[in-house]
Specification:
9 strands; globular; 10 helices; alpha/beta; 3-stranded mixed sheet; about 35% helix; Rossmann fold
Amino acid sequence: MFYVTIRFMKFRKIFQFTLFIFVIACSSQVISTPTISPTDTPSRPIPTPNYDSPTQSQASPTPEATVTKQKTVTATENVNAEVPSTETPISNEWMNAPILPEPTENVRAIYEYGQTLGNNPNAFSIFGDCQARPDEFFGRFETNEALVASLTPELQETVNHFYGSFNRESPTAQDGTTPGALLWDQWHRGEYGCTFAETPVDCELRINNPSFVIIQIGSHFESRNTEYLRRIITQLIDRGVVPILATKADNRELDFRVNRDMYLLAKEFDLPLWNFWASLSDLPNRGLYTRDDRPLQGDIYLIEEAQEIQRQTGLEALNIVWRYATDN
């Protein structure tokens, strides 16, 4: 018990240090990393670059787990095994990824498994920062009747199906949220119906019980973010919740590592990717500007036209993944 307590305290200090640095943005236990495969053929984990390396070419593969055809989760334990390093060049392949997701059977397997656990088929959640909050992103689909009326009948059906999820405040979509914040049990401040015995992710899954989660965590570039995202994705898959990963518009980190890693994680877990970044290519400066009250943050905020594209393509991404998962 003493050993566990010390590790927990150390873990909390790491989060506190991380959050102290990055909250300004937009204001031995085995951790298994499951993925889902419709076949019994194991796939090679796709490593993400280690940006702390001087050459920026090292990568750390993560053991996989699978959900079988019977939708049962089995984690591959690797307590003491040594995993050889794999050289992975820094690639901009993600820039050519399509804007909208191209789901695979993996999505359907996760969703169907979640339904056996009692997940709400009419609920989705958003994990993101200030630009993912209802008033900036999806809330208007429940507050603006004219906007909904302008949608295609198919997208109107999607809005009706998920009505109640678009305009809700949550512990997982707040100003300054990072992947580390989502795993820190103090981040929600005891609000939103959360307790300090649970992280924002735990709280959101308990309260909203979603079948889908859009992960749209923006302008951050802390070196542990990729591993934090793996933990979050793992937890969602274990709960039968379909993650939809999203790229962001800005490049505050200067090397596109956040978007690159979102792309690589989507491939690693065989998950849908919404490449929002690619949807802004026709806008000057990709639809970004610097807020007058936050000049040091640079161009990370979306102009109204970019927000409209974000809202539209985000809904289209949700629509595609939902219909594929349910054969609707």
